[in-house]
Design goal:
The chain is α+β, with helices and mostly antiparallel strands and 186 residues long. The protein has a domain of 128 residues: Aminopeptidase (3-Layer(aba) Sandwich), CATH 3.40.630. The chain has five helices and four strands. The chain is globular. InterPro entries: Acyl_CoA_acyltransferase, Diverse_Substrate_AcTransf, GNAT_dom.
Length: 186
């Protein structure tokens, strides 16, 4: 193993960290078949400057839901703090909605941290529904370690089991397990 030291990052490290992030962004988002799209909100260019000043962005990608078909998953919507409350986020979200509709997407999905109650209230005011509250859907993820473990086990059953009468039921969106006609079985 290569020798190195590990330390907490400091403010002076920001440019180097951002440089590493830029490499990934360029590789994944700005190629012939990008993994994501990004819309940029910017102030008009100053005289003599042919580029605007960026003040926010929306990063999203296309996906698919067996319940609704084509979807857009919005990974991040960000507005620089001094420009918040001026309609910039709403304009960005409106443009993402236009992209979604042009691609025949049925919905935009995204997550909001529980601690971000102000933004959560804003999305709800715009018509977003909290699926964990309404339908009991939970947003789950599997990290890379789990993916490698699952991919490496060849599909062999582990000690994890879903009860056929309550868990693992595949039915209509929002259907309660009791309403399903058949349970998942291996």
């Amino acid at each position: 193993s290569m020798e190195c030291t590990i330390r907490p990052a400091q403010s002076a490290d920001c440019d180097r960290i951002m440089g590493m992030i830029r490499v990934i962004l360029r590789a994944d988002g700005f190629r012939r078949d990008p993994f994501f799209q990004c819309l940029l909100a910017e102030l008009p260019p100053e005289q003599g400057d042919n580029q605007g000043h960026p003040i926010g962005y929306a990063l999203f990608f296309f996906g698919y839901s067996v319940h609704t078909g084509r979807i857009v998953y919005m990974e991040n919507l960000y507005v620089v703090s001094e420009f918040r409350g001026r309609g910039i986020g709403r304009k960005l979200l409106s443009e993402v909605a236009k992209v979604a509709l042009a691609a025949d997407c049925a919905e935009i999905k995204f997550t909001v941290s529980e601690w971000n109650s102000r933004v959560l209230a804003w999305y709800r005011c715009l018509g977003a529904q909290d699926k964990s509250e309404i339908d009991g859907w939970h947003c789950l993820e599997m990290d890379a370690e789990t993916l490698h473990r699952l991919a490496g086990d060849g599909g062999h059953r582990t000690s994890c089991q879903a009860s056929p009468s309550t868990d693992g039921v595949m039915g209509a969106q929002g259907a309660r397990p009791e309403a399903a006609t058949s349970a998942w079985q291996e």
